[in-house]
Amino acid sequence: MSAGAKVAILMGSGSDWPAIKDAYVTLRKFGVEAQVKVQSAHRTPDGAAEFARTAASRGLRVIIAAAGGAAHLAGVLAAHTTLPVIGIPVQGGALNGLDALLATVQMPGGIPVATVAVGKAGAVNAALLAVQILALSDPALQAAMEKHKASLRDSVAKADAELQAEIAKL
Ligand code: RP5
Question: What is the pTM (predicted TM-score) of this model?
């Protein structure tokens, strides 16, 4: 794993990577190192459990888990670690991600998984949530998150100014 990785991004299949890449890219924008790995709750159940059991002792602080269909990966990892687990339901398949959303979000009491949106927004938000968790004990990351929020405010203000200008011409 990348030395010093604080976040792991696990996905149920290599086929999930295109949907999940934005999580990795977002973490990198904040300078957060991440380990990316394929592990399946169903195809490699022992590997997934072992990964989660040893994650904290290897310096990881947050686990992001993405899976589609019968998406049990985030829940299985959460069962084997005390680290916060963020679940990304992967869009696709016969039910277009609704199955993955319900499988990821409907955890039994006692084992939380912080489930983010289906699709690209979910991948980005999983990374941002991981950064926010790390930022609790990292002032530099906290400052970077403030900058991110400011850039969102700026982009909305710009979009609104453009809209008002267009409306004024009607
Ligand atoms: C899930 O099944 C994976 O996370 C993936 O989204 C889906 C399909 O996997 P493949 O059949 O493409 O490997 O476990």
Answer: 0.96
